Amino acid sequence: MASHPPDCCCTKLQCARLNNGYRGTPSGTDLVINESIQGYLARPKDPDRRHSAIVYLPDIFGIWQNSKLMADAFASHGYTCLVLDLFNGDSVSLNMPHDFDIMGWFAHGSDGKNPHTSQEIDPIVIAGIKYLQAQGATQLAAVGYCIGAKYVIRHYRSGIDCGFIAHPSFVETTELAAITGPLSIAVAEMDDIFTPEKRHESEAILSEIKQPYQINLLSGVGHGFAVRCDLNDTSQRFAKDQAFNQAVAWFDRYILD
């Protein structure tokens, strides 16, 4: 694999911080795609920029305060941004127990009847891409965090032109080798999932396939920093902001240029 599967750090590392969502009031719109897929849509003020869109593939916490505000932030930079509920209404609770069985949740869902494997998630991502295209998007970027990163990598084949991922998990080497466009990665120094070994393995793959790529390593932060850092910690906030700015700069280069 190009990154390890999700583990305890996905749910435990920053558990205490999850009760403190990013400050602000989301300004986008909740919506439903194909009568079943929940989403959150943030639009830029400039209508001339609405042909450039981002599909936002979240981590296990799905659509919540932080992901909505981040979508709003992408919209403030001129990109229509759609956050998708990848988990069929079964995102992990912000107050999950410390012994939460993340692999059981992926395999079976919270009730044992709602799995979150590629078989279930791929159609959701494709539906989101088609929705944005139907809304007039002709240039499509994608952002993915943790498990969401896997589906950015998988869906260049479905119409993604350019991708940004942070602290990825569950990415297979064959998936990474098959991307067909530019990819930027923000990496946490202290990450048991995207380890230095996996980072170097990914670098080798990206160098071999000759797609434009960028890998930025942020010191002093752990898995999840790009979407759920402690904003009261200046080092973490700086790293989170750097990852966001990295994504915007990458998209400005390869989507708008």
Automatic annotation (TrEMBL):
It holds the Pfam family DLH. Residues 37-254 form the Dienelactone hydrolase domain. SUPFAM superfamilies: alpha/beta-Hydrolases (SSF53474). It comes from the Eukaryota. InterPro entries: AB_hydrolase_fold (IPR029058), Dienelactn_hydro (IPR002925). This is Dienelactone hydrolase domain-containing protein. It comes from Bionectria ochroleuca (Gliocladium roseum).
